[in-house]
């Protein structure tokens, strides 16, 4: 059964607390926090996502899954480590070289969170293979990062299959998360490709019944 990390990117501020409570009752596995700095990606969500993460921390015990789409990774690791998220995921492309990537993995671990690594759809998945034994999750972006409501890019399913084969062959204990364009029409393909966790936003937030939607997505 796939786990669901609900993206709160499209949540309206005036409905936020009500929605967060609703998602907890509906048994989302994680709250997904999309942190965008307006530089690494075009949109900027830094302030609202920090507010949402703080609110969730105060009212819920559901783990917080932070996805940093930012250039200055260290700055945002410092900012979010204060709320003790379950996991912080950063982009391979945001760092200059492999040494910096390895240093960031260790830095996040020391902050007290688990570590995820991700890359953009056009970046070869093989580039991060060497880091997989040192992280807890690999996030495969199934859309271009930086905007909600996009359609899943079919070719990205091959990346999920490829990394799944690699971690199985090398006996690496790591979760695979997929993010972007996932809904009731695409979840089957994502699961069959090998994802353990699916990030879902609009398909849940815009649904009439969060619990039924999440159950359906989990294939319960």
Characterise the protein shown here.
The protein is an alpha/beta fold and 220 residues long. The chain has a single domain, classed as TIM Barrel (Alpha-Beta Barrel), CATH 3.20.20. The protein is 37% helix and 20% strand. The chain is built from eight helices and eight strands; from the N terminus they run βαβαβαβαββαβαβαα. It has an eight-stranded parallel barrel, surrounded by six helices. α1 packs across α2 and α3 packs parallel to α4. The longest helix is centred in the first third of the chain and has 14 residues. The model has no long low-confidence stretch (mean pLDDT 96).
Summarize the structure.
With 220 residues, the protein is of the alpha/beta class. The protein is 37% helix and 20% strand. It has a single domain, classed as Aldolase class I (TIM Barrel, Alpha-Beta Barrel), CATH 3.20.20.70.
List the helices and strands and how they pair.
Layout: E1 3-7, H1 16-25, E2 30-36, H2 46-59, E3 64-69, H3 73-81, E4 87-91, H4 98-111, E5 114-119, E6 137-141, H5 156-169, E7 175-179, H6 187-193, E8 197-200, H7 202-205, H8 210-218
Parallel strand pairs: 1-2, 1-8, 2-3, 3-4, 4-5, 5-6, 6-7, 7-8
Which CATH architecture would you pick?
Alpha-Beta Barrel
**Tally of strands:** 8
User: How many separate helices?
Assistant: 8
Mean pLDDT level: 96
How much strand content do the residues show? 15-25%
The number of domains is 1
